[in-house]
């Protein structure tokens, strides 16, 4: 058994015992503090050096990379790596794409080792989640976050792991809120005793009740924040939508989160799902468009050729004839005419009066025959534009 | 059809409108298009009063003042502006944007967030990490079809970009507003990716005043890009279904808790 594991008292082959021993807070000494063994100190220095050089855009030499990978297969190495990563609390840009990829590879190795070695130190995973959000590189204007490189790792599909992560984050938050409330209460009690004290009725009824309410409110809002943060992670680490939703709902019910907030979180989850039903395949799109055209053609076999001809009309007589024909076609051409003029390349040249007539035509406040004159005028403007362009 | 002049007369003599509605209309009108000489406040008040009288369900909602103002600027007379506004609200079902709790608006925010994710995934992820949602800046875009920007116009005539957006809106409906929104976000994309939350919000705050909506060049770019932006009616319908399914599921889960929403 490796020396570092013996120091921590890790037993191999038994998940539960590993969990209990590794979850214990590890002293700073083991990470190269004053009382650390020389090998632990060396390891910490190696890992720190590796991460710093990557963040400065210097690629790792193959032997250093191999050495780091070896360390990541040991619990102490993983912890040291994670604690070094934890220093990246703010968004940090890596200028070199290669370094970004090396960095991601190391974190992916850590994740694989985490699963393989049945590691139960969820603090490491928590730090990895944060790192994915904080470290990024740029390709042109594109910001690429590290989570994009980590999301395909199988570790994120284990729902139990997520539950443990959420549980521990919520526990930490509750502890924080409780301690804060306790401190506040103590400060108030000190103030009251300094001021000569108050009646017990005041202390234990009205004031007490409002304090309790404040505490509950603060607790709910803190848990909501944690869940909101995790809904971001669940999306970006590509957890299946339904599983993620169920998990958020379960926590929402347990901590009595406002249903509206819960709904917002679910929407957040859904917003960033990859295009599925919303985007049809190109083939489906063509088939659908084709069948629509066929339907129209069955109803009126002149319609399609006429619509297709509109953008190519070169003289006013043809247009006039077309619009007169349109009347006998039940005015089916009015939207295509309006579309071709309003969304055409020279729509900017349309006089306001013509434009308003076309808008009114679409809204059915005027009929096409009333609009014909204005349409013709609009086309005349377009033709003038074409001619001016040709002469130029 | 509505007889605009007769209704206007009736409102002036019989005062059938709720006082609070009249008060709100006056208040909003005096706060909008202050620098415009072409848009008379009393004309806007008349249009909005008549509209409130004819549309009992919604009566009046903030945002309608900008729609009415823009249409008045285009038509130059009250009756046509009212007629156009009424048809517009009916045809594009805008009343759902103006009813209490703005149900359709929430759905549109969801759809825009999704479209943003499809179109600019990096920006979408960045917005999430900064805690920015389209609901923070796009409500006026939908509720007024960008017409609120006209109060910052330097001249008393519609800008090219506004005309381009409205041309597309009249032809294609809401799809065009989504495309315009994506176009504007796309134009700002580079700067947005380099900004923190406050700066992002400030940049969107500048949109109605800035070059984007008042420079004719932008209109030309928008018209050229319009066909390339991938937003179709079927995508919007599917996203709408997606939103409603989630909403319905949650509603059945929590029972009667969310009563006021659709």
Structure notes:
The complex is a heterodimer of chains A (392) and B (262). Chain A contains 19 helices and three strands. Chain A is extended. Mean pLDDT of chain A is 72; it is low at 1-34 and 367-371. Chain A is mainly alpha-helical. In chain A, helix 3 crosses helix 4 and helix 3 (38-55) packs across helix 5 (75-85). Chain A has helices spanning 3-8, 15-22, 38-55, 62-72, 75-85, 97-116, 122-134, 147-150, 159-194, 200-204, 206-236, 241-254, 259-271, 282-299, 303-309, 316-328, 334-342, 352-362, 368-391, and strands at residues 92-94, 135-139, 142-145. Chain B is mostly helical and 262 residues long. In chain B, 69% of the residues lie in helices and 0% in strands. Chain B has 15 helices and no strands. The longest helix of chain B is centred in the last third of the chain and has 22 residues, at 233-254. The radius of gyration of chain B is 19 Å and the shape is globular. The chains are: A mainly alpha (392), B mainly alpha (262).
């Amino acid at each position: 058994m490796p020396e570092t594991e013996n120091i921590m008292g890790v037993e191999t082959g038994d998940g539960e015992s590993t969990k209990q021993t590794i979850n214990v807070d590890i002293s700073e000494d083991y990470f190269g503090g004053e009382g650390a063994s020389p090998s632990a100190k060396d390891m910490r220095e190696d890992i720190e050096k590796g991460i710093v050089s990557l963040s400065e855009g210097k690629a790792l030499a193959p032997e250093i990379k191999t050495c780091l990978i070896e360390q990541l297969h040991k619990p102490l190495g993983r912890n040291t790596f994670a604690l070094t990563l934890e220093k990246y609390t703010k968004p940090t840009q890596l200028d070199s794409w290669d370094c970004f990829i090396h960095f991601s590879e190391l974190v992916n190795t850590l994740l694989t080792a985490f699963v393989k070695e049945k590691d139960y130190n969820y603090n490491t995973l928590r730090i990895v989640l944060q790192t994915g959000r904080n470290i990024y590189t740029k390709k042109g204007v594109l910001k690429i976050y590290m989570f994009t490189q980590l999301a395909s790792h199988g570790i994120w599909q284990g729902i139990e792991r997520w539950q443990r992560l959420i549980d521990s984050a919520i526990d930490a938050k509750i502890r924080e809120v409780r301690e804060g409330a306790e401190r506040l209460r103590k400060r108030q009690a000190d103030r009251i005793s300094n001021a000569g004290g108050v009646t017990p009725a005041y202390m234990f009824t009205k004031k007490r009740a409002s304090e309790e309410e404040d505490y509950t409110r603060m607790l709910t809002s803190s848990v909501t924040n944690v869940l909101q943060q995790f809904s971001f992670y669940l999306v970006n680490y590509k957890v299946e939508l339904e599983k993620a939703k169920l998990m958020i709902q379960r926590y929402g019910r347990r901590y009595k989160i406002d249903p509206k907030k819960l709904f917002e979180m679910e929407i957040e989850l859904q917003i960033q799902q990859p295009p599925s039903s919303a985007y049809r395949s190109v083939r489906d799109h063509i088939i659908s468009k084709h069948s629509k055209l066929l339907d129209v053609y069955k109803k009126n076999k002149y319609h399609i050729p006429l619509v297709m001809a509109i953008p190519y009309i070169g003289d006013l007589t043809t247009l006039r004839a077309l619009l007169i024909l349109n009347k006998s076609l039940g005015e089916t051409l009015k939207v295509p005419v309006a579309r071709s003029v309003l969304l055409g390349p020279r729509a900017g040249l349309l006089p306001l009066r013509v434009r308003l007539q076309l808008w009114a035509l679409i809204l059915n406040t005027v009929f096409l025959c009333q609009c014909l004159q204005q349409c013709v005028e609009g086309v005349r403007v377009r033709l003038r534009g074409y001619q001016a362009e040709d002469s130029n | 059809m509505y007889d605009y002049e007769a209704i206007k007369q009736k409102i002036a003599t019989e005062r059938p409108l709720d006082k609070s509605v009249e008060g709100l209309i006056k208040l909003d009108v005096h706060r909008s298009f202050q620098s415009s000489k072409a848009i008379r406040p009393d004309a806007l008040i008349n249009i909005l009063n008549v509209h409130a009288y004819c549309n009992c369900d919604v009566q009046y909602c903030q945002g309608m003042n900008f729609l009415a103002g823009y249409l008045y600027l285009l038509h130059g007379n009250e009756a046509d502006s009212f007629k156009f506004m009424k048809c517009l609200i009916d045809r594009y079902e805008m009343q759902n944007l103006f009813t209490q709790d703005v149900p359709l608006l929430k759905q549109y925010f969801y759809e825009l967030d999704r479209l943003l994710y499809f179109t600019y995934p990096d920006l979408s992820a960045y917005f999430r990490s900064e805690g920015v949602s389209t609901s923070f800046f796009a409500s006026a875009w939908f509720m007024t079809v960008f017409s609120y920007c006209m109060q910052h116009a330097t001249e008393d005539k519609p800008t090219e970009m506004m005309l381009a957006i409205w041309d597309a809106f009249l032809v294609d409906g809401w799809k065009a507003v989504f495309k315009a929104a994506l176009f504007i976000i796309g134009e700002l994309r580079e700067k947005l990716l380099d900004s923190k939350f406050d700066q992002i919000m400030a940049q969107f705050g500048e949109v109605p005043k800035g070059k984007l909506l008042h420079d004719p060049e932008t209109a030309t770019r928008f018209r050229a890009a319009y066909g390339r932006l991938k937003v179709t009616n079927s995508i919007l319908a599917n996203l709408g279904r997606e939103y409603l399914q989630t909403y319905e599921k949650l509603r059945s889960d929590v029972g009667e808790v969310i009563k006021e929403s659709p």
